[in-house]
Amino acid sequence: MAREAAGAARRWTYAFEEGRAGMRELLGGKGASLAEMTAIGLPVPPGFTITTAACVEYLRRGEAFLGEIEAEVEERLRELEGKVGRRLGDPDDPLLVSVRSGAAISMPGMMDTVLNLGLGDRSVEGLARRTGDLRFARDSYRRFIQMFGDVVLGIEHDRFEDILAEVKARRGARLDTDLDAEALADVIERYRRLVREATGRPFPEDPREQLGLAIQAVFRSWNNERAVVYRRLHRIPDDLGTAVNVQAMVFGNRGPTSGTGVVFTRDPNTGEPVLYGEYLPNAQGEDVVAGIRTPLPVGELKARQPETYAELERTAGLLERHYRDMQDIEFTVEEGRLYLLQARSGKRAPRAAVRIAHDLAAEGVLTKEEAVLRVDPEDVVRLLHRNVDREAPKTLLARGLPASPGAATGEVVFDADTAARLGAEGRSVILVRPQTTPDDIHGIVAAAGVLTSRGGMTCHAAIVARGMGKPCIVGCEALAIDLAARAFRAGERVVREGEVITFDGALGEVYLGPVPTVEPELTPEFRDLMRWADEARRLGVHANADTPEDARRARELGAEGIGLCRTEHMFMAADRVPIVQAMIMAETAEERAEALAALLPMQEGDFEGILRAMAGYPVTIRLLDPPLHEFLPDTEELSRRIAELKAQGADPAEIARREEILRKARALREANPMLGHRGVRLGITMPEIYEMQARAIFQAQARLLREGVDARPEVMIPLVGHVRELAEMRRLVERVRAEVSRETGVELSAPVGTMIEVPRAALTAGEIAREAEFFSFGTNDLTQMTFGFSRDDAEAKFLHHYLHEKILPENPFAVVDVQGVGELVRMAVEAGRRTRPDLVVGVCGEHGGDPRSIAFFHEVGLDYVSCSPFRVPIARLAAAQAALRGAREREAAGAAG
């Protein structure tokens, strides 16, 4: 998008009063927000924005590009000086500016900011004289050196913090605000010495040099590691670039009637319609976001400065109504006067996302359809996360601020790299830090939850975890964290790295060891939103379920049928494996028939339970699919056990029995089992297996119908590649149905269809539809066969490289490959319905629960998607959003035509 903007742009900068909210792609989210607030008359310090297009051009051409924008930036700077009545670098009355990033898509904390730019050894004295406050001037200067040294010069942040901590300790100061002007002069001198030692150059005094270097640093921060990781996580394109906002400084560190804060127009954890946020007196904005000091609840501002609070409350309401969404507002109070520095749609926990969308619709701000479109489908599954069982016995370690709800249990780790490494190994970890920084993003992604001892509800850890739907507790001051010893102390208890803790992000409580969790309660707002979604969607939503328990859970979550019941899972039960093995080992038809006769009542009971649980809804039962060797012991393990038995002089009969199993297992072994003797091929070569399963289905249906239960089985033949395979198996199923109907005197019916998972089946779907009453796309295997990938090998060995190098845009096993696999689906639907116009078509692979894949399935005209029970609400919402967006696109196209 930014490249297109670059081609069209004739200028690289815009004053705030020249922009509007609709210019987000060019001005970035922050620049567009500042422009919009300026336009509607809110108190915004003046400034200008350097466009995202300029960033893209800089990243492409480097410093050579800066010469093209230098004169334009200088012109904007002079305009700003005129508005404020001060000059950048004036030794008597200096203009100070902030230089802040702002991409078109919000990436909170991922890119860089520099505050108080324009200060030097002479201008800091001028600032002190103008304000009459030497301490304030020096505090601003030490902040500037530290931030500029970190962001622009690349000096580690902790080196500055170590100096500050040392000076505070020597002078007996607990907080930064306890340092007087003399102490701050000491800090400044030591900071300047650190800059010279680290860079070999003195700290730059020329404010225009400072500004040029800061602009470049913000541009470069678009490609820092944390920003790249964040974009990958949230699927944000890499070519958008960030804008740079240059804005006159206002100062929250001017004394007790000054301060800085972040406020949400509604509670971002619960969605409750109250002002929610924090305020830090005598501080600047980075103190809140970085979690350096634990701030006060924003309600404290009401007690201290009621007029300022009332203005903030009025402004928050105005902005929410203007943008028609919950807002996250950054503000500064300078000597009692309110200034707005940013407003954006606030990150919110899943529960809050649902309630806010619901309440805005109830208040008439949104329509029901808009409310449905406002909730990310992935938030729905996070809403279904479990919580700590409040009745279970547990050992409370500490309490902190409940920054993001949900329960998390895992091993304690103290740095992001360890969290990422252990998380990649499949271990559950809790990242414990004094406070997180944007550089910790990869560890936050990998962790089950985040726990910090410092920071408030709007600090970095809280904002990022909440946006990910990840449990988080911040400001847990009872924890004394010793990073060097890799341990923390809570009271008398020491917890070391690797020990397990549990915490509840909704309660803000930390417990020792694992603690049981419970199912979440679905709120009335959630149920209303799902009802609105159901009214809007066309696609049906079924579930993949193999047990009555799964089926019942699926119904509770809104499934309208079972789209895939895998019968092989029923064969894996411990009491059935010996019978299944006897069937496989049978040397004669009589022996196999005996084993199948033993399995028949078990299968019948399985089907009866699922059909009963889904009474009145279709249940698609896939006949046995995997190769038979999967039901036999591993040959290497069996060989080892036989050798042990021989060495122990065990019973020869037992040894002979195991050797026979080993012989059969080796005989059944295949070079490529996925493409081997499985699915319909098994049914054709061993029809008695499919015959037993069909009889179990129809006997279960007959029994239920006699009881008055509306049982609706559907029989699915897997892995069909040729119409004659399906024709033969359909004849078998219908023959058994007729037999059971005669035997029971009950009229039985069940559609017979096939799973489309072999590319040849998709290509010959018109022929196959002559024999199939329904298609169900098995997109997992269809993806494997279309790409020629073995999924397990691909994901373990090279797929991550393909994704990192952008050879593939997405994992095709997670998001349907529209151009390849999707084209086969489209062709098969069209060809199948030409042959059989009433052909029912669904999908039962993992893609059936992926929102972006669901949008494609809606577009190509499928009748339903089927997914795991816990993804049913996601599928319901995603199907509704696909229908609503499709309707909008058709309306727009009609209006344009």
In short:
With 897 residues, the chain is α/β, with parallel strands linked by helices. Helix content is 49%, strand content 17%.
Can you walk through the features of this model?
With 897 residues, the chain is of the alpha/beta class. Helices cover 49% and strands 17% of the residues. It has 37 helices and 33 strands. The protein has an 8-stranded mixed β-sheet with strand order 14-24-23-16-17-18-19-15. An 8-stranded parallel beta barrel has the order 26-27-28-29-30-31-32-33, surrounded by 6 helices. The chain has a 5-stranded antiparallel β-sheet with strand order 1-2-7-5-6.
Key terms for this structure?
897 residues, alpha/beta, eight-stranded mixed β-sheet, eight-stranded parallel β-barrel, 37 helices, 33 strands, 17% strand, elongated, disordered N terminus
**Average pLDDT across residues?**
91
Shape: elongated
Low-confidence stretches: 1-9
Q: Which structural category fits the helices and strands?
A: alpha/beta
Helix content: 40-55%
Tally of DSSP β-strands: 33
Query: Main β-sheet, in a few words?
Result: 8 strands, mixed
Taken as a percent bin, the fraction of beta residues is 15-25%
- Terminal-residue CA separation: 25 Å
Number of helices: 37
**Strands of the biggest beta sheet: in what spatial order?**
14-24-23-16-17-18-19-15
Report the radius of gyration as a whole number of Å: 33 Å
Write the SSE topology.
Layout lengths: L1 H7 L4 E3 L8 H16 L7 E4 L1 H10 L4 H19 L2 E2 L5 E2 L1 E7 L9 E5 L5 H9 L2 H18 L5 H15 L9 H19 L7 H15 L3 H10 L7 E7 L10 E6 L11 E6 L3 H5 L6 E2 L1 H6 L1 H18 L3 E8 L2 E9 L4 H13 L5 H7 L2 H7 L3 E2 L6 E5 L1 E4 L2 E7 L2 H9 L4 E5 L7 H6 L2 E4 L7 H9 L3 E3 L4 E4 L4 E4 L2 E4 L3 E5 L4 E4 L4 E2 L5 H13 L3 E5 L3 H9 L5 E5 H5 L5 H9 L3 H25 L4 E5 L12 H13 L4 H17 L11 H6 L1 H21 L4 E6 L5 H22 L7 E5 L2 H5 L1 H4 L5 E4 L1 H9 L3 H7 L1 H6 L16 H15 L4 E4 L7 H9 L4 E4 L4 H25 L1
Helix pairs in contact: 1-3, 5-6, 6-8, 7-8, 14-15, 14-16, 14-20, 15-20, 16-37, 20-37, 21-24, 23-24, 24-28, 25-26, 28-29, 36-37
